[in-house]
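Protein modeling request. Please complete all fields; requests missing the sequence field cannot be processed.
Requester role: graduate student
Desired output: 3D structure, token encoding
Chains: 1
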Amino acid sequence: MLYLKIIISFFGIAASLYVFLNNIIRKFQFAVNRLFAAISFITVIMTSSLLYMLFVPDSRWLYEAALVYFATISMINHLYFHYAQIFPRWEKRSPRWFIILSALPGTAVFFMTLCTNMILENAACSNGEPVFVYGRYFPIYIAVFAFNILGTFFTLVYKTRMLANESFRIQLFYRSIGDHISATLITVSFIILPYFFGLQQYHAIGIPLSAVILLIINNYAISDERFLDFRKFYARGAYWCSLFLLLAVPAYCVLRYIDLLPLGAKSLYTVTGSLLAFMYFFLVYRFVSPRIADFFRKGYLTFEKNITDFFQGISGISAMKDRTDFWEMFFNSTIDALEPRFGIESAALYMRDESEGGFVYNYGFGKAGESRTIDESNLLVQCLKAYPVLIERSMLFTDDNLREFSTAILAFFDEHTIDVVLPFYDHEKNLIGILTLGAMKNGKPYPMDLISAFEIYRIHFEATIVNSMYLEHIKASQIAEHDRMVIRNIKSRLTPKKLSQINGIRISSFYLNNSEQGGDYFDTLPLGQDKIGIFIADTADAGVDSAILGLECYSLVHAQPASYDSPEKLLNIMNWVVSTSRFSKNYAPAFYSIYSGTSRTLKYSNAAMKPMVLFDAGKNVFIELDTGGIPVGIDRGFNYEVKTLQVYPGSIGLLYSDGLENAVNSSGVNYSIGRIKDIVRLNASDTPALLVRKIFADFKNFIQNTQLHNDVSLIIFKTE
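Delivered output (720 residues):
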């Protein structure tokens, strides 16, 4: 028994020194760590005084060592009460006045014990062990001892119910179980058995053993409050204790009683005992130890299987990235699977959207996504940009880096029932996505093992998203470049190199090719000796579809144009062809007019294009020629109207696209058709070619270096 006491005491000193140095070196900046370092150091003194009494029970300094022993036990008990009051370090501490008042009894008893014989009257040696004679005021010692233990107990109970951090409340409850067991062991071995039953031989085991347990538990508790999992900590401790007992006790028995076997020579006892111990160690550690580990980890085995299956599902999806339903399968495996695998109530994925100025809801389940966007100015977004880490609700209380954002983010979490946020970043570390997770269906906080697994999950998800987006961007860029090349070639083919002319009318134009996604198409078509058709259309900026629409218009305009002797006939057939086309689903505004030099008449029909502007030379006024109508390609049953106008010699007609009036200069002012009218009125005697040069010069001077994105087309004709 004496050897066991000495071994436990030595182990207690070693553990106390380790905890003391660990808190002094690594976390001395925190008050709770400094206090616990003081507790550890006093524990070294307490255990050393006990070890001295065990080694030298008949020393002349036995009584002084006993005084130190009792005084330090009282002080440790007293400091644990203060430790409970300020732990955890990020929570509001007990009021200062309460801490001072609660310190008075313990401080007074410490000095009474150390400096007088009122608590401990004497110490003597009996059967090789120290025996204590209690003083007449020892009940005061017991009362203060009980006061500190009960104060610690009720403080822990209060905090396990009142802390705002629900996840940590649970961890604090599990921590308090170990504290209460140790406190009970101290009370029984140090107070109840010696004082009330006269059994003093057990305190030398109970005190250092309880001290070691308290040091190990609380050193884990203050090592990193963000990642505590006491259930797993206790299970691991129980496993090692069980394995130690399973190995040590039988081995001790074999070595202790091997000499009872009738082996003859004494040397055989040592050899046989060593072989039996070795075989026993091998068999237990090889076959029994894994089963003991599984027994203490059985609560985690199902969880680990879910984690393994979950990540296998994610890994399997990566091989299907070329399938058309890849994203549907990806989200089913990575987001939808969170509910059946881990019992998560809701999830919402928000992806970066530049046009929205924030993050837009993209996918999810449950009640997630009630907030369709998360603004760029949201403090959650700012926090994730500053600290690219997974955020779990309890971390907002425990992580110093998140403290400046914690109040606002907690309010956001509460408003949208969020418990965990996983950020995703691109290769340049720009925030591109946010996954928010709701509460667990069982109502409990997220376990730390799941939080740790989510960090790996975040990396998997991020890699897949970023790589896929990168590849999609490359494909889109290649496709876009190919489309631009196709559009350029088609527009080059459609744009007339020069306009056709007939007697009695002169036609000129200017054209600015500003769009790579489609644009304007205009043309003139001789319809015999004395007729000419003038056509203009705007195919918009729909990419290849616009180019195809332009080709369809071009084909119809040039396919037997003489058969469309009236403008509405061409627009009607064009409307039917475009609306039934299997190559393009777009539509286009268009205007078609036919001028007859013999009769000096102008027939025109409009399909929602800008009306023709005609300067009537006879009346010296501008008039707009319009027939209403809808863009070709919307309703194949629509019939276009035609009108006829008698045109006087010297009249000037203008046809233009939206790009002309949509052009904006550096001051934000749009170019207007009124400027062209002024030029035409002042220069009505000029030819169309000269008018075009003057209008083009005015237009370029107006926009200067402003970049344009739409095609600009203008056709001018003048009758003779």
